[in-house]
Model the fold of this input.
Amino acid sequence: MKLAKTSEALIKRKKGLTKSELQLYSLCAIPVLLVFVFNYIPLFGILIAFKDYRYNLGIFGSKWVGIENFTFFFTSSDFYRITWNTLSMNFVFIVFGTICSVLVATLLFHLRSRNATKVFQTILITPHFLSWVVVAYMAFAFLNPTYGFLNAILGIFGIPAVDWYSEPGAWPYILTFFNIWKHVGMDSVLYYACLMGIDTGLFEAADIDGANSVHKFWKIIVPELTSLLVLQTILKIGGIFRADFGLFYQLPRNIGVLYSTTDVIDTYVFRAMREIGDMSMSSAIGLLQSIVGFILVLTTNFVTNKISPQNALF
Amino acid sequence: MNMKKKTIMSQSLLIAFFVLLCVVIIVPFVMLLSISLSSEADVAKYGYQLFPKAIDFSAYQFVFNNPTTVLRAYGVTGFFSIVAMVLSLALQAMCAYPLSRKNLRGRMGISFYLYFTMLFSGGMVPSFILITQYLHLNNTIWVYIIPGLINPWYIFMIRTFYQSLPGEIIESAYVDGANEYTIFFRIVVPLCKPVFATVALFTFLNKWNDWMTSVLYVDDPNLYSLQYLLQKILKDVELLANNQQNAQLTQQAVEVPSETVRMAMAVVVAGPALVVFPFFQKYFVKGLTVGSVKG
Done:
Protein backbone atom coordinates (compact mmCIF):
# COMPACT_ATOMS: atom_id res chain seq x y z
CA MET A 1 0.00 0.00 0.00
CA LYS A 2 2.65 2.41 1.07
CA LEU A 3 4.85 1.44 -1.83
CA ALA A 4 2.05 1.99 -4.28
CA LYS A 5 1.37 5.42 -2.93
CA THR A 6 4.94 6.61 -3.05
CA SER A 7 5.49 5.38 -6.57
CA GLU A 8 2.26 7.06 -7.58
CA ALA A 9 3.55 10.25 -6.04
CA LEU A 10 6.80 9.83 -7.96
CA ILE A 11 5.02 9.51 -11.25
CA LYS A 12 2.89 12.57 -10.60
CA ARG A 13 5.97 14.48 -9.57
CA LYS A 14 7.33 14.38 -13.09
CA LYS A 15 4.21 15.86 -14.61
CA GLY A 16 3.39 18.86 -12.51
CA LEU A 17 2.72 20.04 -9.02
CA THR A 18 1.09 17.50 -6.77
CA LYS A 19 -1.57 18.52 -4.34
CA SER A 20 0.77 18.12 -1.44
CA GLU A 21 3.45 20.21 -3.09
CA LEU A 22 0.90 22.95 -3.64
CA GLN A 23 -0.08 22.79 0.01
CA LEU A 24 3.53 23.04 1.09
CA TYR A 25 4.28 25.99 -1.19
CA SER A 26 1.19 27.78 0.03
CA LEU A 27 2.66 27.80 3.53
CA CYS A 28 5.59 29.83 2.20
CA ALA A 29 3.60 32.27 0.13
CA ILE A 30 3.09 35.19 2.51
CA PRO A 31 6.61 35.16 3.98
CA VAL A 32 8.17 35.02 0.52
CA LEU A 33 6.05 37.97 -0.54
CA LEU A 34 6.95 39.99 2.56
CA VAL A 35 10.65 39.32 2.04
CA PHE A 36 10.28 40.44 -1.55
CA VAL A 37 8.68 43.73 -0.53
CA PHE A 38 10.89 44.58 2.44
CA ASN A 39 14.21 43.04 1.41
CA TYR A 40 14.34 42.79 -2.36
CA ILE A 41 12.51 45.93 -3.49
CA PRO A 42 14.87 48.13 -1.42
CA LEU A 43 17.73 46.72 -3.50
CA PHE A 44 16.55 48.98 -6.33
CA GLY A 45 17.13 51.82 -3.92
CA ILE A 46 20.85 51.22 -4.36
CA LEU A 47 20.47 53.52 -7.36
CA ILE A 48 20.21 56.40 -4.90
CA ALA A 49 23.86 55.97 -4.08
CA PHE A 50 24.68 57.09 -7.63
CA LYS A 51 22.20 59.96 -7.70
CA ASP A 52 21.57 63.28 -6.09
CA TYR A 53 18.36 62.18 -4.40
CA ARG A 54 15.56 64.70 -4.02
CA TYR A 55 12.26 63.72 -2.42
CA ASN A 56 10.17 65.65 -4.91
CA LEU A 57 11.89 64.07 -7.93
CA GLY A 58 11.79 60.50 -6.62
CA ILE A 59 14.37 57.79 -7.20
CA PHE A 60 14.09 57.70 -10.97
CA GLY A 61 13.67 61.43 -11.47
CA SER A 62 16.72 62.47 -9.45
CA LYS A 63 19.89 63.47 -11.24
CA TRP A 64 22.69 60.96 -11.89
CA VAL A 65 25.98 61.95 -10.30
CA GLY A 66 28.05 58.82 -10.91
CA ILE A 67 30.37 58.00 -8.06
CA GLU A 68 30.44 61.50 -6.64
CA ASN A 69 28.82 60.39 -3.37
CA PHE A 70 31.55 57.82 -2.88
CA THR A 71 34.44 60.12 -3.67
CA PHE A 72 32.97 62.74 -1.37
CA PHE A 73 32.95 60.21 1.48
CA PHE A 74 36.41 58.82 0.76
CA THR A 75 38.01 62.24 0.65
CA SER A 76 36.26 63.57 3.76
CA SER A 77 38.26 63.73 6.97
CA ASP A 78 35.58 61.63 8.70
CA PHE A 79 36.32 58.61 6.59
CA TYR A 80 39.41 57.40 8.46
CA ARG A 81 37.98 58.14 11.88
CA ILE A 82 34.72 56.27 11.51
CA THR A 83 36.24 53.36 9.60
CA TRP A 84 38.99 52.95 12.17
CA ASN A 85 36.55 53.21 15.09
CA THR A 86 34.22 50.65 13.54
CA LEU A 87 36.92 48.13 12.67
CA SER A 88 38.97 48.43 15.84
CA MET A 89 36.00 48.28 18.21
CA ASN A 90 34.46 45.34 16.40
CA PHE A 91 37.79 43.55 16.41
CA VAL A 92 38.12 44.05 20.16
CA PHE A 93 34.53 42.88 20.68
CA ILE A 94 35.06 39.74 18.61
CA VAL A 95 38.30 38.76 20.35
CA PHE A 96 37.39 39.61 23.94
CA GLY A 97 33.76 38.64 23.56
CA THR A 98 34.64 35.20 22.25
CA ILE A 99 37.32 34.58 24.88
CA CYS A 100 35.00 35.64 27.69
CA SER A 101 32.04 33.59 26.54
CA VAL A 102 34.09 30.44 25.95
CA LEU A 103 35.64 30.90 29.38
CA VAL A 104 32.27 31.36 31.07
CA ALA A 105 30.83 28.37 29.22
CA THR A 106 33.78 26.15 30.19
CA LEU A 107 33.62 27.13 33.84
CA LEU A 108 29.85 26.66 33.95
CA PHE A 109 30.38 23.24 32.41
CA HIS A 110 32.73 22.29 35.23
CA LEU A 111 30.25 23.29 37.88
CA ARG A 112 28.79 20.13 39.42
CA SER A 113 25.68 21.58 41.00
CA ARG A 114 22.85 21.71 38.45
CA ASN A 115 20.88 24.24 40.47
CA ALA A 116 23.82 26.61 40.84
CA THR A 117 24.50 26.38 37.10
CA LYS A 118 20.92 27.29 36.34
CA VAL A 119 20.83 30.26 38.70
CA PHE A 120 24.16 31.65 37.45
CA GLN A 121 23.17 31.18 33.84
CA THR A 122 19.86 32.97 34.32
CA ILE A 123 21.56 35.94 35.95
CA LEU A 124 24.26 36.11 33.30
CA ILE A 125 21.73 36.07 30.47
CA THR A 126 19.52 38.81 31.92
CA PRO A 127 21.36 41.86 30.51
CA HIS A 128 20.88 40.49 26.99
CA PHE A 129 17.20 41.35 27.27
CA LEU A 130 17.70 44.99 28.08
CA SER A 131 17.60 47.61 25.40
CA TRP A 132 20.63 49.82 24.86
CA VAL A 133 18.48 52.68 26.05
CA VAL A 134 18.18 51.11 29.49
CA VAL A 135 21.87 50.18 29.51
CA ALA A 136 22.64 53.81 28.67
CA TYR A 137 20.81 54.77 31.87
CA MET A 138 22.94 52.34 33.83
CA ALA A 139 26.09 53.72 32.24
CA PHE A 140 24.85 57.20 33.09
CA ALA A 141 24.38 56.20 36.74
CA PHE A 142 28.01 55.06 36.77
CA LEU A 143 29.52 57.92 34.84
CA ASN A 144 27.44 60.93 35.83
CA PRO A 145 30.13 63.49 36.73
CA THR A 146 28.41 64.88 39.83
CA TYR A 147 26.45 61.96 41.28
CA GLY A 148 27.96 58.93 39.55
CA PHE A 149 29.39 55.87 41.27
CA LEU A 150 32.65 55.77 39.42
CA ASN A 151 33.71 59.20 40.59
CA ALA A 152 32.56 58.36 44.12
CA ILE A 153 34.79 55.27 44.08
CA LEU A 154 37.69 57.23 42.63
CA GLY A 155 37.10 59.81 45.36
CA ILE A 156 37.73 57.19 48.03
CA PHE A 157 41.22 56.72 46.61
CA GLY A 158 41.76 60.46 46.42
CA ILE A 159 41.54 60.60 42.62
CA PRO A 160 39.78 63.77 41.44
CA ALA A 161 36.41 63.43 39.69
CA VAL A 162 36.47 62.97 35.94
CA ASP A 163 33.84 64.28 33.54
CA TRP A 164 33.49 61.03 31.63
CA TYR A 165 31.18 62.51 29.03
CA SER A 166 33.92 64.82 27.79
CA GLU A 167 36.75 62.30 27.98
CA PRO A 168 36.94 60.48 24.61
CA GLY A 169 39.97 58.42 25.62
CA ALA A 170 37.97 56.44 28.17
CA TRP A 171 35.17 55.41 25.85
CA PRO A 172 36.72 52.44 24.04
CA TYR A 173 37.04 50.78 27.46
CA ILE A 174 33.58 51.81 28.61
CA LEU A 175 31.99 50.53 25.40
CA THR A 176 33.90 47.25 25.54
CA PHE A 177 32.90 46.72 29.15
CA PHE A 178 29.20 47.27 28.55
CA ASN A 179 29.18 45.29 25.32
CA ILE A 180 30.66 42.24 27.03
CA TRP A 181 28.56 42.80 30.14
CA LYS A 182 25.43 42.68 27.99
CA HIS A 183 26.28 39.75 25.74
CA VAL A 184 28.62 37.38 27.53
CA GLY A 185 25.86 35.33 29.16
CA MET A 186 23.83 34.81 26.03
CA ASP A 187 26.86 34.10 23.85
CA SER A 188 28.08 31.50 26.32
CA VAL A 189 24.77 29.60 26.08
CA LEU A 190 25.68 28.29 22.64
CA TYR A 191 29.15 27.17 23.71
CA TYR A 192 27.78 25.69 26.92
CA ALA A 193 25.19 23.67 25.03
CA CYS A 194 27.89 22.46 22.67
CA LEU A 195 29.99 21.31 25.64
CA MET A 196 26.99 19.50 27.10
CA GLY A 197 26.85 17.51 23.89
CA ILE A 198 30.37 16.12 24.29
CA ASP A 199 30.50 12.39 24.90
CA THR A 200 31.29 12.06 28.63
CA GLY A 201 33.31 8.95 27.83
CA LEU A 202 36.05 11.23 26.49
CA PHE A 203 36.47 12.86 29.87
CA GLU A 204 36.40 9.54 31.70
CA ALA A 205 39.08 8.15 29.41
CA ALA A 206 41.16 11.28 29.94
CA ASP A 207 40.79 10.89 33.71
CA ILE A 208 42.01 7.32 33.55
CA ASP A 209 45.01 8.46 31.52
CA GLY A 210 45.74 11.00 34.25
CA ALA A 211 44.98 14.16 32.28
CA ASN A 212 44.50 17.35 34.29
CA SER A 213 41.99 20.13 33.58
CA VAL A 214 44.39 22.06 31.37
CA HIS A 215 45.00 19.01 29.19
CA LYS A 216 41.30 18.37 29.00
CA PHE A 217 40.65 21.98 28.01
CA TRP A 218 43.09 21.97 25.09
CA LYS A 219 42.65 18.36 23.97
CA ILE A 220 38.91 17.87 24.37
CA ILE A 221 37.03 21.10 24.92
CA VAL A 222 38.78 23.30 22.34
CA PRO A 223 38.61 20.74 19.50
CA GLU A 224 34.94 20.10 20.22
CA LEU A 225 34.18 23.82 20.12
CA THR A 226 36.21 24.56 16.99
CA SER A 227 33.42 24.09 14.51
CA LEU A 228 31.07 26.39 16.40
CA LEU A 229 33.82 28.94 17.01
CA VAL A 230 34.71 29.10 13.32
CA LEU A 231 31.07 29.43 12.34
CA GLN A 232 30.45 32.24 14.79
CA THR A 233 33.62 34.03 13.78
CA ILE A 234 32.80 33.90 10.06
CA LEU A 235 29.45 35.48 10.82
CA LYS A 236 31.04 38.14 12.98
CA ILE A 237 33.78 38.98 10.50
CA GLY A 238 31.10 39.39 7.87
CA GLY A 239 29.62 42.09 10.07
CA ILE A 240 32.86 43.80 11.03
CA PHE A 241 31.97 46.90 9.01
CA ARG A 242 28.65 47.19 10.77
CA ALA A 243 28.64 48.59 14.27
CA ASP A 244 25.99 47.92 16.88
CA PHE A 245 24.09 51.16 16.38
CA GLY A 246 22.36 51.14 19.77
CA LEU A 247 25.60 50.74 21.68
CA PHE A 248 27.43 53.54 19.90
CA TYR A 249 24.47 55.89 19.70
CA GLN A 250 22.83 55.49 23.12
CA LEU A 251 25.74 55.06 25.54
CA PRO A 252 27.79 58.13 24.50
CA ARG A 253 24.44 59.98 24.18
CA ASN A 254 25.41 61.36 20.77
CA ILE A 255 27.73 63.89 22.40
CA GLY A 256 29.94 65.66 19.87
CA VAL A 257 33.05 65.80 22.06
CA LEU A 258 33.15 62.01 22.12
CA TYR A 259 32.91 61.52 18.35
CA SER A 260 36.64 61.04 17.99
CA THR A 261 36.38 57.61 19.63
CA THR A 262 32.69 56.73 19.54
CA ASP A 263 31.57 57.75 16.07
CA VAL A 264 31.20 54.67 13.87
CA ILE A 265 29.96 54.13 10.34
CA ASP A 266 26.41 53.42 11.43
CA THR A 267 26.04 56.47 13.66
CA TYR A 268 27.62 58.61 10.95
CA VAL A 269 25.22 57.33 8.29
CA PHE A 270 22.33 57.90 10.64
CA ARG A 271 23.33 61.47 11.35
CA ALA A 272 23.97 62.21 7.70
CA MET A 273 20.49 60.95 6.95
CA ARG A 274 18.47 62.39 9.83
CA GLU A 275 20.29 65.54 10.79
CA ILE A 276 21.77 66.66 7.49
CA GLY A 277 19.23 64.94 5.26
CA ASP A 278 21.88 63.68 2.85
CA MET A 279 20.12 60.56 1.58
CA SER A 280 22.53 59.92 -1.26
CA MET A 281 25.73 59.82 0.76
CA SER A 282 24.07 57.75 3.49
CA SER A 283 22.96 55.21 0.97
CA ALA A 284 26.39 55.19 -0.71
CA ILE A 285 28.02 54.32 2.62
CA GLY A 286 25.31 51.76 3.34
CA LEU A 287 25.99 50.15 -0.02
CA LEU A 288 29.73 50.03 0.69
CA GLN A 289 29.03 48.31 4.01
CA SER A 290 26.86 45.72 2.30
CA ILE A 291 29.36 44.99 -0.43
CA VAL A 292 32.34 44.76 1.90
CA GLY A 293 30.39 42.57 4.33
CA PHE A 294 29.30 40.31 1.50
CA ILE A 295 32.85 39.93 0.19
CA LEU A 296 34.17 39.27 3.69
CA VAL A 297 31.70 36.47 4.37
CA LEU A 298 32.41 34.83 1.03
CA THR A 299 36.18 35.16 1.52
CA THR A 300 36.32 33.83 5.07
CA ASN A 301 34.02 31.04 4.05
CA PHE A 302 36.15 30.26 1.00
CA VAL A 303 39.32 30.16 3.10
CA THR A 304 37.63 27.96 5.71
CA ASN A 305 36.50 25.65 2.94
CA LYS A 306 40.11 25.27 1.77
CA ILE A 307 41.51 24.62 5.25
CA SER A 308 38.79 22.57 6.88
CA PRO A 309 35.65 22.12 4.79
CA GLN A 310 33.58 20.66 7.63
CA ASN A 311 33.70 23.99 9.45
CA ALA A 312 32.50 26.17 6.59
CA LEU A 313 29.19 27.97 6.62
CA PHE A 314 28.14 26.82 3.13
CA MET B 1 40.19 11.32 50.22
CA ASN B 2 42.70 13.78 48.90
CA MET B 3 40.97 13.68 45.54
CA LYS B 4 37.66 14.52 47.15
CA LYS B 5 39.12 17.46 49.02
CA LYS B 6 40.57 18.77 45.80
CA THR B 7 37.21 18.55 44.08
CA ILE B 8 35.50 20.45 46.88
CA MET B 9 38.20 23.10 46.72
CA SER B 10 37.91 23.62 42.99
CA GLN B 11 34.12 23.61 43.12
CA SER B 12 34.10 26.29 45.82
CA LEU B 13 36.52 28.36 43.78
CA LEU B 14 34.27 28.07 40.77
CA ILE B 15 31.24 29.10 42.78
CA ALA B 16 33.13 32.05 44.24
CA PHE B 17 34.07 33.13 40.73
CA PHE B 18 30.50 32.98 39.51
CA VAL B 19 29.13 34.77 42.54
CA LEU B 20 31.57 37.58 41.83
CA LEU B 21 30.64 37.65 38.16
CA CYS B 22 26.96 37.75 39.01
CA VAL B 23 27.55 40.68 41.35
CA VAL B 24 29.12 42.58 38.44
CA ILE B 25 26.07 41.77 36.35
CA ILE B 26 23.57 42.68 39.06
CA VAL B 27 25.10 45.90 40.44
CA PRO B 28 23.83 48.13 37.59
CA PHE B 29 20.30 46.77 38.14
CA VAL B 30 20.49 47.45 41.88
CA MET B 31 21.80 50.90 41.11
CA LEU B 32 18.85 51.84 38.91
CA LEU B 33 16.40 50.54 41.47
CA SER B 34 18.11 52.25 44.36
CA ILE B 35 18.34 55.64 42.69
CA SER B 36 14.71 55.44 41.64
CA LEU B 37 13.71 54.71 45.25
CA SER B 38 15.74 57.56 46.73
CA SER B 39 14.45 61.01 47.36
CA GLU B 40 15.71 63.80 45.16
CA ALA B 41 17.20 65.58 48.17
CA ASP B 42 19.26 62.54 49.16
CA VAL B 43 20.63 62.23 45.64
CA ALA B 44 21.61 65.88 45.62
CA LYS B 45 23.28 65.50 49.02
CA TYR B 46 25.02 62.13 48.80
CA GLY B 47 25.10 61.39 45.07
CA TYR B 48 23.85 58.04 43.76
CA GLN B 49 23.94 55.34 46.42
CA LEU B 50 24.00 51.59 45.97
CA PHE B 51 21.36 51.35 48.70
CA PRO B 52 18.92 54.19 49.31
CA LYS B 53 19.28 56.16 52.55
CA ALA B 54 15.52 56.15 52.86
CA ILE B 55 12.91 54.57 50.64
CA ASP B 56 10.92 57.18 48.77
CA PHE B 57 8.33 56.47 46.09
CA SER B 58 7.86 60.02 44.85
CA ALA B 59 9.67 59.34 41.58
CA TYR B 60 7.26 56.52 40.75
CA GLN B 61 4.35 58.68 41.81
CA PHE B 62 5.55 61.30 39.40
CA VAL B 63 5.84 58.81 36.55
CA PHE B 64 2.38 57.37 37.06
CA ASN B 65 0.66 60.63 37.94
CA ASN B 66 1.33 61.55 34.43
CA PRO B 67 -0.69 58.83 32.75
CA THR B 68 -1.14 60.29 29.30
CA THR B 69 2.45 59.95 28.21
CA VAL B 70 3.72 56.85 29.94
CA LEU B 71 0.62 54.68 29.88
CA ARG B 72 -0.03 55.57 26.27
CA ALA B 73 3.47 54.43 25.33
CA TYR B 74 2.95 51.29 27.40
CA GLY B 75 -0.23 50.51 25.51
CA VAL B 76 1.31 51.17 22.11
CA THR B 77 4.41 49.11 22.86
CA GLY B 78 2.46 46.23 24.40
CA PHE B 79 0.10 46.12 21.44
CA PHE B 80 2.68 46.07 18.69
CA SER B 81 4.97 43.69 20.58
CA ILE B 82 2.28 41.07 21.07
CA VAL B 83 0.77 41.38 17.59
CA ALA B 84 4.21 41.24 15.95
CA MET B 85 5.19 38.25 18.07
CA VAL B 86 2.11 36.23 17.14
CA LEU B 87 2.11 37.09 13.43
CA SER B 88 5.80 36.67 13.00
CA LEU B 89 5.93 33.32 14.78
CA ALA B 90 2.99 31.98 12.81
CA LEU B 91 4.37 33.06 9.44
CA GLN B 92 7.90 31.89 10.13
CA ALA B 93 6.75 28.54 11.49
CA MET B 94 4.67 27.93 8.36
CA CYS B 95 7.43 29.04 6.05
CA ALA B 96 9.99 26.80 7.71
CA TYR B 97 7.95 23.64 7.29
CA PRO B 98 8.24 23.15 3.52
CA LEU B 99 11.93 24.00 3.77
CA SER B 100 12.39 21.12 6.18
CA ARG B 101 10.95 18.60 3.72
CA LYS B 102 13.92 17.03 2.00
CA ASN B 103 12.10 15.84 -1.09
CA LEU B 104 10.36 19.10 -1.95
CA ARG B 105 11.41 20.61 -5.27
CA GLY B 106 12.53 24.23 -5.09
CA ARG B 107 13.35 23.93 -1.42
CA MET B 108 16.93 25.01 -1.95
CA GLY B 109 15.81 27.88 -4.15
CA ILE B 110 13.50 29.28 -1.49
CA SER B 111 16.17 28.80 1.18
CA PHE B 112 18.68 30.71 -0.89
CA TYR B 113 16.14 33.44 -1.61
CA LEU B 114 15.76 33.93 2.16
CA TYR B 115 19.42 33.40 2.99
CA PHE B 116 20.63 36.00 0.52
CA THR B 117 18.87 38.77 2.44
CA MET B 118 21.09 37.94 5.42
CA LEU B 119 24.22 38.36 3.32
CA PHE B 120 23.35 41.45 1.37
CA SER B 121 20.96 44.28 2.00
CA GLY B 122 20.18 47.62 0.47
CA GLY B 123 20.87 49.41 3.74
CA MET B 124 18.84 51.80 5.82
CA VAL B 125 18.15 54.53 3.27
CA PRO B 126 16.30 52.52 0.58
CA SER B 127 14.08 50.91 3.23
CA PHE B 128 13.43 54.32 4.71
CA ILE B 129 12.36 55.70 1.35
CA LEU B 130 10.22 52.65 0.58
CA ILE B 131 8.39 52.86 3.90
CA THR B 132 7.88 56.61 4.00
CA GLN B 133 7.47 57.55 0.33
CA TYR B 134 5.77 54.53 -1.18
CA LEU B 135 4.09 52.44 1.51
CA HIS B 136 3.32 55.43 3.77
CA LEU B 137 3.60 53.34 6.89
CA ASN B 138 5.26 56.12 8.87
CA ASN B 139 3.22 57.50 11.74
CA THR B 140 1.04 54.41 11.86
CA ILE B 141 1.20 51.57 14.36
CA TRP B 142 1.89 49.15 11.47
CA VAL B 143 5.37 50.48 10.93
CA TYR B 144 6.34 48.71 14.15
CA ILE B 145 4.80 45.44 13.02
CA ILE B 146 4.94 44.77 9.28
CA PRO B 147 8.46 45.60 8.02
CA GLY B 148 10.23 43.21 10.39
CA LEU B 149 7.78 40.32 10.34
CA ILE B 150 10.08 37.85 8.62
CA ASN B 151 13.53 37.16 10.01
CA PRO B 152 15.22 34.47 7.89
CA TRP B 153 17.48 33.56 10.78
CA TYR B 154 14.49 32.38 12.82
CA ILE B 155 13.06 30.51 9.83
CA PHE B 156 16.26 28.50 9.57
CA MET B 157 16.28 27.92 13.31
CA ILE B 158 12.74 26.53 13.19
CA ARG B 159 13.48 24.52 10.06
CA THR B 160 16.45 22.82 11.72
CA PHE B 161 14.26 21.98 14.67
CA TYR B 162 11.67 20.36 12.36
CA GLN B 163 14.43 18.33 10.75
CA SER B 164 15.42 16.96 14.14
CA LEU B 165 11.97 15.38 14.55
CA PRO B 166 11.81 11.70 13.61
CA GLY B 167 10.71 11.42 9.97
CA GLU B 168 8.57 8.34 10.65
CA ILE B 169 5.93 10.49 12.31
CA ILE B 170 5.29 12.38 9.10
CA GLU B 171 5.51 9.27 6.94
CA SER B 172 3.02 7.31 8.99
CA ALA B 173 0.58 10.22 9.03
CA TYR B 174 0.97 10.45 5.25
CA VAL B 175 0.23 6.74 4.90
CA ASP B 176 -2.86 7.24 7.05
CA GLY B 177 -4.07 9.68 4.42
CA ALA B 178 -3.48 12.98 6.21
CA ASN B 179 -2.82 15.97 3.99
CA GLU B 180 0.10 18.36 4.46
CA TYR B 181 -1.90 20.93 6.41
CA THR B 182 -3.14 18.31 8.86
CA ILE B 183 0.33 16.87 9.30
CA PHE B 184 1.80 20.29 9.95
CA PHE B 185 -0.81 21.78 12.26
CA ARG B 186 -1.86 18.61 14.10
CA ILE B 187 1.38 16.66 14.35
CA VAL B 188 4.44 18.84 13.79
CA VAL B 189 3.40 22.04 15.58
CA PRO B 190 2.61 20.46 18.95
CA LEU B 191 6.09 18.91 19.03
CA CYS B 192 7.95 22.16 18.59
CA LYS B 193 7.24 24.07 21.78
CA PRO B 194 10.89 24.75 22.65
CA VAL B 195 11.81 26.43 19.39
CA PHE B 196 8.51 28.32 19.16
CA ALA B 197 8.91 29.59 22.71
CA THR B 198 12.44 30.74 21.91
CA VAL B 199 11.45 32.58 18.74
CA ALA B 200 8.38 34.09 20.40
CA LEU B 201 10.40 35.36 23.33
CA PHE B 202 13.13 36.84 21.18
CA THR B 203 10.65 38.51 18.86
CA PHE B 204 8.67 39.93 21.74
CA LEU B 205 11.72 41.34 23.49
CA ASN B 206 13.11 42.69 20.25
CA LYS B 207 9.92 44.63 19.73
CA TRP B 208 9.64 45.67 23.35
CA ASN B 209 13.17 47.07 23.16
CA ASP B 210 12.64 48.80 19.83
CA TRP B 211 13.44 52.51 19.88
CA MET B 212 14.89 52.83 16.39
CA THR B 213 11.55 52.57 14.59
CA SER B 214 10.20 55.55 16.50
CA VAL B 215 13.31 57.57 15.78
CA LEU B 216 13.04 56.94 12.06
CA TYR B 217 9.35 56.78 11.35
CA VAL B 218 7.23 58.31 14.11
CA ASP B 219 6.68 62.00 14.85
CA ASP B 220 3.30 61.59 16.49
CA PRO B 221 3.77 61.55 20.31
CA ASN B 222 0.71 59.31 20.61
CA LEU B 223 2.60 56.55 18.81
CA TYR B 224 5.93 56.79 20.61
CA SER B 225 7.30 53.48 21.81
CA LEU B 226 8.27 53.13 25.44
CA GLN B 227 11.98 52.90 24.72
CA TYR B 228 11.92 56.01 22.58
CA LEU B 229 10.15 57.92 25.31
CA LEU B 230 12.79 56.73 27.75
CA GLN B 231 15.57 57.81 25.43
CA LYS B 232 14.04 61.25 25.09
CA ILE B 233 13.76 61.59 28.85
CA LEU B 234 17.45 60.91 29.37
CA LYS B 235 18.08 64.08 27.39
CA ASP B 236 15.13 66.04 28.63
CA VAL B 237 13.22 65.00 31.72
CA GLU B 238 10.84 67.94 31.42
CA LEU B 239 9.26 66.11 28.52
CA LEU B 240 7.23 64.19 31.05
CA ALA B 241 6.15 67.37 32.76
CA ASN B 242 5.44 69.29 29.57
CA ASN B 243 2.90 66.76 28.51
CA GLN B 244 0.80 67.33 31.56
CA GLN B 245 -2.48 68.88 30.60
CA ASN B 246 -2.47 71.39 33.41
CA ALA B 247 -0.48 74.48 32.57
CA GLN B 248 0.01 75.35 36.21
CA LEU B 249 1.60 72.01 36.89
CA THR B 250 4.03 72.74 34.11
CA GLN B 251 5.06 75.84 35.94
CA GLN B 252 5.87 73.84 39.05
CA ALA B 253 7.37 71.08 36.99
CA VAL B 254 10.60 72.98 36.66
CA GLU B 255 11.15 71.38 40.05
CA VAL B 256 10.59 67.84 38.75
CA PRO B 257 12.67 65.29 40.64
CA SER B 258 14.72 64.74 37.52
CA GLU B 259 17.48 62.36 38.62
CA THR B 260 15.22 59.89 40.39
CA VAL B 261 12.39 60.10 37.87
CA ARG B 262 14.73 59.20 35.04
CA MET B 263 15.81 56.04 36.79
CA ALA B 264 12.25 55.20 37.83
CA MET B 265 11.27 55.43 34.17
CA ALA B 266 14.09 53.07 33.24
CA VAL B 267 12.89 50.54 35.82
CA VAL B 268 9.32 50.82 34.58
CA VAL B 269 10.44 50.28 30.99
CA ALA B 270 12.87 47.42 31.59
CA GLY B 271 10.75 45.63 34.18
CA PRO B 272 8.34 43.61 32.02
CA ALA B 273 11.12 42.21 29.84
CA LEU B 274 12.98 40.94 32.86
CA VAL B 275 9.89 39.41 34.42
CA VAL B 276 8.96 37.55 31.25
CA PHE B 277 12.18 35.85 30.31
CA PRO B 278 12.87 33.42 33.19
CA PHE B 279 9.61 31.64 32.32
CA PHE B 280 10.95 30.90 28.87
CA GLN B 281 14.42 29.96 29.91
CA LYS B 282 13.79 26.22 30.21
CA TYR B 283 12.92 26.18 26.53
CA PHE B 284 15.44 28.35 24.93
CA VAL B 285 18.66 26.52 25.63
CA LYS B 286 17.14 23.64 23.71
CA GLY B 287 15.44 25.85 21.12
CA LEU B 288 18.59 27.80 20.44
CA THR B 289 21.00 24.93 20.18
CA VAL B 290 19.02 22.48 18.12
CA GLY B 291 18.10 25.29 15.79
CA SER B 292 21.51 26.77 15.26
CA VAL B 293 23.29 23.73 13.91
CA LYS B 294 24.18 24.60 10.37
CA GLY B 295 22.16 23.11 7.56
